[in-house]
Amino acid sequence: MLRFSALAPHQRLHAGPILLAGASSLAGASSLAAATCLAVAGFLAAPAARAQFTPPPPGTQVHDPSALKPPAGARVAIVEWEDMQCPDCARANPLLREAAEKYHIPWVRHDFPLAFHSWSFQAAVNARWFDTKSKKLGDDYRDEIFAAQSDLGEDPAKMADFTQKYATGHGIAFPFAVDPQGKLAAAVKADYAMGQRVGIEHTPTIWVVTDHSKGAPFVEVVDRNKLYKLIDQAIADTKGAEPAPAHRVPTAKKAPGN
Question: Using CA atoms, how far apart are residues 93 and 107, in angstroms rounded to an integer?
């Protein structure tokens, strides 16, 4: 994923016009040479202008962090917003699955289907239908869609055929009208709206999130090579943390002599 931004005025390099002195004007040529030397010296003395070639610092500006927390009972989790037609999501998918299995932590997957993709929204609806049979069936469908993504291309018919075969392979009859009341589509849209409230701008967007942490409550995984390191740090930061006190209903005190 690449990001680009316009340079600020002080970051731009300007190439001024090159003036050639006439042969008859030695003084003019000397002045030009002196000015050129001063300009070069000033340029070399200035800090390296890396800003014009380096993308801006990556990371999502979080507006509403309420969704960036583990499920109940977990101290550390991976939270992701994904689009099943997104190539980079497909590349991230095996790593996230492996990390969740290695550390035995939840992997919370939210839908964020992008409007310019031809079948990602319908695939998200299909996945939620499989979720109603079992969460594992839905997540396995997502994983297999990612694995087959390059073969499916941009053709919604290929995705639909893949879905039918997936259902048949698991002994399930996939309905012609998968979401007649629109409830599954509404859930996908709700995930998308949640992502917008958080500040999602691209897919995948991945966080390691914590509860009762001595460190940061959530950290975005910008460099996926550092995913395991971030999880290790999150586990260390939550080790030995006191759990939230359980709500207790006060009991009436016994009267003396009873």
Answer: 11
Quick check: 204 and 44 in contact, CB under 8 A? no
CB 69 within 8 A of CB 106: no
Residue-range definition of the domain harbouring residue 75: 65-238
Residues near 220 by beta carbon (within 8 Å), at least 6 away in sequence: 59, 60, 205, 206, 207
Higher-pLDDT residue of 25 and 95 is: 95
We report the CATH number of the domain holding residue 145 as 3.40.30.10
**Is residue 26 a part of any domain in this protein?**
no
Q: Is residue 59 part of a domain?
A: no
- The DSSP annotation for 1-62 comes to -----PPPGGG----PPPPPPPTT-HHHHHHHHHHHHHHHHHHHHSPP-GGGTSPPPP----
**pTM (2 decimals)?**
0.72
pLDDT computed for residue 37 by the predictor: 41
Residue 76, classed as helix, strand or coil, is strand
* Number of domains comprising the chain: 1
Which residues of 126-238 form beta strands (DSSP E)?
Answer: 205-210, 218-220
